[in-house]
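Bumping with the actual sequence this time:
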Amino acid sequence: MKEQDILGHPYTAESLDLGADSEGPLVATLVHRPADSGPSPSAGAVLYVHGFVDYFFQRELGDWWAARGYDFYALDLRKYGRSLRTGQTPFYTEDITDYFAELDTAWELITSRDGHQQVVLMGHSTGGLITSLWAGQTAPPELTALILNSPWLDHFEGPVAQAGLTALAATAARLNPRTVLKKPAPDPYARSLHHSTGGTWDFKTAWKTLDFPPIYAGWLTAIRRAQAKLHRGTGITAPVLVLTSARSGRLSAPGQKHDFDAVLSVQQIRRWALELGNDVTSKVIDGATHDVFLSAQPARSQAYKLMGRFMRRLAVD
């Protein structure tokens, strides 16, 4: 059943039943923003999937698509945001493909129930990894395009550090998946975004926390396994757009203003983007942050401009 979403009218939200695991009932949440075109058929639909320690709050993004005639949908994955339930370990999984269940369910609702035969899939950061693997494995006929916003396609360390950390995580995960590899710590990037710590955005800090959560061996092993699978190629047949900042960097202080990707290596993203399919467009946005749609101006406007240009190209093709 759809209810009014926390973002207010015209956003709605509905829970998707995913069964249960050892921590109790599992749900995902499908947020919907109808197209501005009224009762006539929309231009299509968009399904957005957030990143790690995240949830959908980017009303500007949903409104941008709706203004162009698209029904906009966003998933809060299990144990994230609107879908997090008491007693659950936030953001935790031991297999990235677990999330395919909510993608399957959401896709079925968007295409069969709501009648959309052209759907654009969007993913940010970890959501970009999840959606890339799902699109390659599932290859739904309604998939019009895949748009990736700084997708997490590889680890952010160098090759030697990557190999060592991957081996350490795998060994620890075999003994105890809940082994903590990194303790909670302040997250300078999240603090740079939130209005209470010097940023310009408002979001629920219980869902998108200002402190980075503990990193568990089981979770990191699941990420590295998924990235290794992606590196072997996904075979995505739909056109792919990859948006990244022009450069990466490290934040030296919580809440520091910045104009680079402070989370991932943009070089690694652009390298592995070539393995996504045969029609990949990679665009660099000078001054963008990790989530290009949360960047300061003019980088944010440039991100929307590039996405609009990509969609117009598809319409011509």
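The tokens above came from a reply further down the thread. The two ends are 38 Å apart (CA to CA).
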